[in-house]
Amino acid sequence: MIQKKVCIFGATGVGKTSLTRQFVDSIFNERYHTTIGVKVDKKVLTLGDNDVQLMIWDIEGIDRYCGFNPRYLRGASSFCIVMDRTRAQSLTEGMEILEKARSVSDAPALMVVNKCDLDNEWHWDTDAVNSYANSFQGCFYTSAKTNMNVENMFNKLAKLSL
Ligand code: GDP
Ligand code: MG
Which residue has the higher pLDDT, 149 or 121? Predict the structure, then answer.
């Protein structure tokens, strides 16, 4: 079976672990458990005629300086950067992470706007968000809580890894 490594990046608290848990174990937890370092999960997906074993690297996001470590990208076939629809700062942090990632990897990347079950309180600048999305190979609006688009997002990440 083909094995592919994919990485989940993003600022702290945007929902990286929640998206991974929802996808791998179909559970969502309101309680916040900080990821220390990296946790690797595996899940087999069928894409057309191929079975692909995804190795999902759920990476810690301590703060804007520690949320990305280039060594985690080594050997990754694709990655996503998760942003939080309710927190404007997480979008600019996500773009900073993309810039750092692009200095070490040209693997395809997805933009993921998570927590879409919640209302955002700040002004949502559609033009800015669309221009961010243009730097990626796709953009998904997700909710780890309601399971909105989670499967679609990981499927696309897997397709991009092939
Ligand atoms: P991480 O630091 O990026 O791994 O973030 P976590 O997955 O640990 O999530 C941080 C917090 O946000 C937790 O309290 C989660 O329950 C919550 N959370 C994550 N995803 C969602 C979502 O899609 N909707 C809502 N309402 N809360 C979420
Ligand atoms: Mg986490």
Answer: 149
Buried b (16+ CB within 10 A) or exposed e, 89-110: ebbebbbbbbeebeeebebbbb
**Residue 4 CA, ligand 1 centroid: distance in Å:** 25
Task: Give the per-residue pLDDT at 67.
Answer: 56
Burial 11-35 (b: 16+ CB within 10 A, else e): bbbbbbbbbbbbbeeeebeeeeeeb
Q: Minimum-distance ligand to the CA of 36?
A: 2
**Closest of 11, 70, 52, 1 to residue 35, by C-alpha:** 11
> What residue type is assigned to position 76 of the chain?
A
Better-scored residue on pLDDT, 68 or 109: 109
Summarize pLDDT for 65-108 with one digit per residue, the tens: 555 677 889 999 999 999 999 999 999 999 999 999 999 999 99
Query: How far, in Å, from the CA of 116 to the mean position of ligand 1?
Result: 11
